[in-house]
Task: structure prediction
Amino acid sequence: MKLYFILISGSLKSRMQYKMNFIFSMVSYGMIMAVDFIMLAAILRRFDDVKGWDLYEVGLLYSISSIAISLYRVIGAEVHDFERYMVNGEFDSLLIRPVSPLFLLLTRNIDLSRIGGAIQGLIIIAISVAGLMKTGKATLLLIAYLPVAVLTGLIICFAVGVLTAALAFWTEKIKDFQTFTLYAPFTAANYPMNIYPGLLKIIFFTVIPVAFMNYVPVMYLLQKGGEWWYLITPAAVAGVFLTFSLIMWHIGIKHYHSTGS
Amino acid sequence: MIYWLLFQKSFLRNMQYRLAHLINNAASAIFGFVFMAVWVGVLTGKESGSPYSIQDMVHYIGTGQVFLWLTVFLTAGLNIQNGVRSGAITMELARPVHYFSYVTVQEAGRIAYNLLFRSIPIALVYVLTVGFYVPENAVSLLYIFISAILAIFISLNLTYLVGISSIWTTEISWAHFVLITLLFGFGGQLVPIDLLPKPIYSIVALTPFPCVLYYPVMMYLEKAAPHVLLIQASWAAALTMISFWVTNIARSKIEIQGG
Result:
C-alpha cells in the first residue's frame, strides 16, 4: 500500500503541472453528466415519472451509477486506456518489473479531472435524498447504504474495465468494445431496469451486471419490492464478477506475445 | 481536384477499421434502445398530455442515433491540435489551399464513410426491430438533404473553431467535451427541445446547437417547417465567417523559426 501511494503521488505531481487544464477538464466532465440529468429532470418535470419512479428516485440510481463510473475513470485511467499498451508494445515494460502489471497500471496514472463527474453525482445524491426526505421515503438505512452501493458499483465497473482490457490480449484494440461493455450499460443503469425489454434486462442482470449496483438495492430500500437479501446480493455479485475478471486478465497475460523487433 | 482527392483518401483510411466500427454500431443501437425505453416508460399512459406519441419518440430517438454519426460525432478538433503540437500546422497553413477547406474536406470524407458504415447499418437495426420512419412526401427528401448538409456544415465549423483554438491553448480535450455536451443537450438528443421548460427553450433556440441535430431530425420526421432551413443557413454563414476570421488571426500568430 505504501508503494501505491508513493507511485500515485509521483503521478499526481506530474498532472498538476497543468493546473488550468486540469480545472477545465474537471468542470467539463462534471458538466457533461449534469446536462444529462437536467434533460431527464426536464422530462420528469413534465411527465412526473418513468414507470413509477419519480425524479428523486431516478436521481438515486443516476448518481450511484455516475459516481461509480467516474471513480473508475479516476483510479483505472490506464486500465481504461490499456489498448495503448498493446498497440504501442508498451506492455513488455510492465512485465519486466517485480510488481504485478495490473498494480503498476493502477499506480501509473490517477485521472483526477474525472472527479468532476463524481462531485456532480454527489450533488444529485444530496438533492435526491433531500427530495425523498420531504415525502418520507428516505430512511436511515437508505442513506447508510448509499456508500455501499457506490463501492459495489465501483467494483463492478472496475471488473468490467479489467475484463474489457483483458480482451486486448487477443484483439489489441478495445475502444469499440468499451462502448459496448461500459458506456452503454452504465448509461442504461442511470434509469430503472423495469423500463427495459427482456433481452436488455437479461444482459444487465447477467453478462454485465450493472443492475445490482443500484436498481436491486434501491428498489428494496424505496419499498418498491424485493427482500432484505437484495442488499447483500450486490456485494456477492461484485465479488464473483471481480474474481472472474482477474482470472481472465491472468489468462490473457499467459496468452500474450510481444510484437518483438 | 485536390479536395476530392483528400475526401477520397479520408474515406479509404476509415475503411481500414470497418469491422471494429460495425461492432461499435451495435453499441450505438443499444444506446438508442435505452433512450427509447426511457421514453416508452415516461409516456405509457400519458400520451394524451404529450405532443409526441410513443411511436413518435421511438422514431425521434432512432433517427437521432442515425444522425449523430453524421453531424455530432466528428473528430475532436478535426485533429488540428495534433498539427499544433507537432508544429506541422506551419506547413499546412503555408500550402496553396485554404486551411479551413483542407481540414474540413478530410472530415467530410469521414462523414461519407460514417453514412455508409455507421448510420445506414444502425437504421437497418431499427428497421428490423422497433421500426424506422420513412418520409412520405417526395419534396421532404429535398428539404431533408439540405437540412442535413447544413447541419454537417455547422458542426464542421463548430468543431473547427474548437480545433483552431489549440493555437492559443494547445490542449482542447475539455473544449471538445463542452461542445459535445452542448450538441447533445441543446441539440435535443434525448429531449426534443420544444419539450424543455419555456425559459430554457427560449435560450436554446437562440444557439446554433439545435441546427446540428434537432432540426435535421425533425425535418426527417416531417415535423419541421421549411423555414428552419433559413435558420440553419444563417448559422452556417455566420459560423463560416467566424472560422475564416479566426484562421486569419491564427495565421498571423504562427511563427516559423529555424534556418
